[in-house]
Amino acid sequence: MDILTALLGGFAEAITLTNLMYCFLGVALGTFIGVLPGLGAMIGISLLLPVTYYLEPHSAIIMLAGIYYGGEFGGSIASILINVPGTPSSAVTCIDGNQMTKKGRAAVALFVTAIASFIGGSIGIVLMTLFSPLIADFALSFKSEDYFAVMLLGLVASASVARGSALKGLVAVLLGVLVGTVGTDVSTGVQRFTLGFPELVTGVNLVILAMGIFGLAEVVSSAGNTLPPSGDQHVRMRDMLPTRDEARRSTGPVARGSALGSLLGALPGAGPTLSAFLAYSFEKRLSREPEKFGTGIVEGVAAPESANNSAAQTAFIPTLTLGIPGTATMALILGALMIHGIPPGPKLMTEHADLFWTLVASFWIGNLFLLILNIPLVTIWVRLLKIPYRLLFPSIICFICVGVYSVSLNPFDIFLVIAIGLLGYGMRVAGYEAAPFLMGFILGPLMEEYLRRALLLGRGDVTVLVQSPVAAVCLAITSLMLLWPLVGEHVRRLRVGFPRP
């Protein structure tokens, strides 16, 4: 009853005209910024952070939060339409979403994205409302070895995202880990694989890598096309709706993706990107026809979109209740709270309970705004496909260059994204998927950091990695995933050698 009373009080504050206006402004700006390759919510929040000095704390945080989860939704639009992830967490949506576009079903993919995002976000908000203290305590109980084991599991699972050979998937993951080691070693301060370039001392930026490995590689591989994939498509409401079979097949992935994203979003350092990749990998493992993933099926869109949007909501749990920002974007929101004299942490839910519950209520309103705003916009987004490639591709390259340059205002980044784009094109030609590569790049450095910390605390004893129940279970699952293809191949050969009578 106390939670319900507090939530009703939050709604009473959130539905004031001022807060509604800033909530709508936030999700609208987040959506449009998320669509632009290379920008994303973090750039939008950075640009608007000075504006919040002149706003009331409730309105300021509501607007910044709206930009954040609006950007997560907007990033999937560019992924589906032009195979350029607007945000890193929407990179996995490229795999099946863009294939649906090439089949002339972009409107269906965008509609499923809107519904899955709304459901995933709603489930994340429910869990945040009911279990914020519990989830925060669970996240706080994670040790270094637990994080290492979870991330190792994520890396091995991401290899299954690739179509075809699992070995090629693992090679792509390892290549991503290798690129992730470029820069300065956080433990020793030694520069690794910088090739003498001072710009690489801080490593390769995630935005640059995602834009190059997906966006620029897509432009190069499609340079010979002269017509857009679905230039004559006239979108009506019934054209957006998935078939009954697709709606039925989407139910499970949305539910599982939302649950997985809600849990991982509450873990500092995990967030929407890891949630989306693991949700996609999990659905491919569960599927009776895993070979269809990557060919443009609705499950490959519904699972990651529900996961990253639910994770975007529960990512506020460690930020607000523990004062631990899980991502750089959350760190900006944490800074906005401190600007207004609100210290995040365990006391926020008691000393500033009105702000917490107003923010939670605004999440419901913001997700509803996203649904109302983006379903009518499907027609406008699909019209982008009518632009001829000779005009569309230069525009994409321009957006990519502007996006990567805006990260650090360094011309070197433009040359770097070109090099990474050529690497991505070479991987495509050789049959290696970009998604596992990106996952290895994201999780590799974090996994290394947590492994070192665990061994340091364990005085070099490697058995510390299996002493925690969470770590032991994750490592056992990882071992099974690595051994299963070998066991399956052995069983298949036995069946061939000893056919049934």
Automatic annotation (TrEMBL):
Keyword Transmembrane helix: yes
Superkingdom of this protein's organism: Bacteria
Residue stretches spanning the membrane: 24-49, 61-82, 106-135, 147-164, 170-188, 200-220, 259-282, 320-343, 355-382, 389-408, 414-443, 464-487
Every DUF112 domain range: 20-438
Keywords assigned by UniProt, alphabetized: Membrane, Transmembrane, Transmembrane helix
Listed Pfam families: TctA
Name assigned to this protein: TctA family transporter
